[in-house]
Design goal:
Elements (H helix, E strand, L loop, with lengths): L6 H12 L6 E6 L5 H13 L20 E4 L10 H11 L10 E4 L7 H12 L6 E5 L8 H4 L3 E5 L4 H11 L6 H6 L4 H25 L5 H8 L4 H19 L13 H5 L6 H12 L8 H13 L22
Parallel strand pairs: 1-4, 1-5, 2-3, 3-4
Helix pairs in contact: 3-4, 6-8, 9-13, 10-12
């Protein structure tokens, strides 16, 4: 099924191609679940097999089976994309293309490259071999070196409005009430498909967070339960709740906001530390899940939440949560 909110992205790219101004290296930026991987697959197919490429990116992701496409992901037993993978990719790009239309490399996601891997890619980004197109999918922009950013054209894929998202979701999976799932997903339609499946789990997280505020449960017990979920589920959900709290504190309404935090809870907190708390969560979201002890990390986060964020400190300060985010 076509992803209609990517139409302006596709039109701009096709215009650049017609005018022979298409870049050789692009960064695809956007919220998780907005369609970056579908966009990358469409770019690859448009370059390698333009006669058969659809007018718009599609869902599910339609990765072309083409020997000139190299889609690089982390190995199953690793948390990062390493320098050896990048060197092998550069070697592949230097070979003659099979179809005569150049080669395409997709690094997915680029923000988990090691520093050595990123450094080894710099020269290739500046001077790609042959007629190569290098696509970097970025889930966490803050984790990408500035030297990589400066060598790529940035393409930001924005969120569609709520009405358009719900209309599209109704076509993909009719008969569901999508508003809540879309709010849980921060307004990203593809993430809403996953959120719909995870709503039972997030409902449990919400009950726990409310119970923490009334001291009806122990942060240690809640952390133990949350640690059985995927790190992405727990941290992404908590991050959205905190972000919505920040919007409310500054007197704004967040688009797609889904906060379950009562005003009375917010009033009892040191709201100045909400930014610090969100910063800690975002740093954790940008780390490979196996690089820290999830249960101890959640204990630190939830203890500080239960105590009103009075002890929250940034990483470069003494005390606070960071001593609890220990490696395994």
């Amino acid at each position: 099924m076509v992803i209609n909110w990517l139409s302006s992205f596709a039109e701009r790219w096709q215009t650049q191609v017609r005018q022979e101004r298409a870049p050789h290296a692009v960064l695809l930026l956007g919220a998780p679940g907005v369609g970056k991987r579908s966009a990358a697959a469409w770019l690859a197919k448009s370059k390698l097999d333009p006669e058969r490429a659809s007018n718009l990116p599609t869902y599910p992701v339609d990765v072309p089976l083409d020997p000139d496409l190299h889609w690089l992901v982390r190995p199953e037993d690793k948390h990062t994309i390493g320098v050896d993978q990048i060197r092998a990719l550069i070697g592949e790009l230097s070979l003659t293309s099979h179809g005569g239309r150049g080669k395409v490399a997709v690094i997915d996601p680029a923000n988990i490259m090691t520093a050595a891997a990123a450094n080894s890619l710099l020269k290739t980004l500046e001077e790609p071999p042959g007629d190569a197109l290098i696509i970097l999918i970025v889930d966490r922009l803050s984790r990408l070196p500035a030297t990589i950013l400066s060598r790529c054209q940035k393409i930001t894929i924005g969120l569609p409005d709520e009405a358009a998202s719900i209309e599209w979701l109704d076509q993909v999976r009719p008969g569901m009430q999508w508003s809540q799932a879309l709010r849980e997903a921060g307004g990203a339609p593809l993430a809403a498909l996953t959120a719909a499946e995870q709503m039972e789990a997030t409902a449990s997280l919400g009950r726990d967070l409310k119970a923490l505020a009334s001291r009806a449960v122990s942060p240690i017990d809640v952390a133990e339960r949350w640690s059985k979920q995927s790190p992405a589920l727990a941290l992404d959900w908590l991050g959205r709740q905190v972000q919505d709290c920040i919007y409310r504190v500054v007197g704004q309404s967040q688009p797609g906001g889904a906060s379950i935090i009562d005003d009375s809870v917010l009033q009892s907190m040191d709201s100045r530390n909400l930014f610090c708390y969100l910063d800690i969560i975002n740093r954790l979201r940008g780390q490979p899940s196996g690089s820290y002890n999830l249960q101890l990390t959640l204990e630190g986060l939830l203890i500080d939440w239960a105590e009103g964020l009075v002890h929250c400190r940034r990483q470069d300060s003494d005390g606070g949560l960071w001593p609890l985010t220990v490696s395994r």
